[in-house]
Amino acid sequence: MEQHRPPDPDPMGFVERNFLGMIVMVPSRYEIIRPIGRGSFGYVIAVRDTVTDRYLAIKKYSNIFEQASCNKVRLHLLRELKLHKVLQSHQNILKIEGCYTYPTDPEHACDVYVISRLMHTTLARVIASDNVLTPAHCQYYIYQILRALSYLHSARIMHRDLTTQNILMNLNHDMRLSDFGFSRPIDDQLLGQYTDYIVTRAYRPPELLLMHQGYDERVDTWSAGCIFAELYLRQELFAGPDSVGCLERILFVLGSPEPDEYDFVTEPSAVNFLRGYIQFPKRALQEVVPPLADQPHALEFLGHMLAWDYRKRWTSAQLLQHPYLQNMRLENEPVADIPPWGPQMLQEPQDMEACCVAILQDVRNYPVFPGLESSSDQ
Q: Which residue in 118, 217, 258, 276 has the fewest CB atoms around it within 10 Å?
């Protein structure tokens, strides 16, 4: 349980609330509505801005500047702050709109609070509910997911943790992609340096499960394919107890790959595993996802996302042009307009002090009180 801290001297004033042992400090202008929950890296509450009448979500990163805090958490936060600052607004991406530290004095700052638009629920909860999901729902959902991914990929960014938990929704079925802490720029300087320990296991593509580090943004389109199937099955397609279990599940569900479909794998243990494992026959996707049996365009669409060989997998931009989405897509889907990534984005500080300094610098680039909802969302 966190220690009680003395009142902050900042003139904006703070209100202290304790939610099940988690103390949150919120500027008095914000009316606290309710706790939302605890995530992997922080605690989230819902508030109302009493000046703008906007409903917002505030996520607390605790003790981020203390020695005992994990540097992985600091890097997670730093990536979010940097990426959102350069990305423009987009209808299907949840942007960071504000940020502050507590205490507010940088010399004594301990916690970081990140502010974003308040959303109603997650796609994971919708899938787990008793709500009826029609083919029209599924089509609209995957369109929005791919629209967000296409925008990100046009900015040369991989999300790398696309799951149903990270897709937020409102009651009108509008979606926003969130949680960019594992995102990385796509750059030739980084090829072969990406970690394979990302993406929640059930949504992790074969190239990551096989420890290949030269992957690209199509890791996200595999995850999108897993989610598309899950919308119809109402359960994870490739769930497993560990990485090997997920890989075995992929082999069983999709069939074993041909040698030329995994010749990009260089890790000897991974190659030996594939060569020595039981050979499963290829299965038709209508057997894998029976509700799609009478939707040929949807089956073909899913097949392009779940291609074993990532080099043959379709990109998000290509998928938006598929006939399955012809009644959804815009003539000109938005693309990002940002300069090439510079060294400050490609090189991440690995020691605590440098990471804390970078976080404090980026926090200062955000307002404590976001303005009215922007009409510039594309």
A: 276
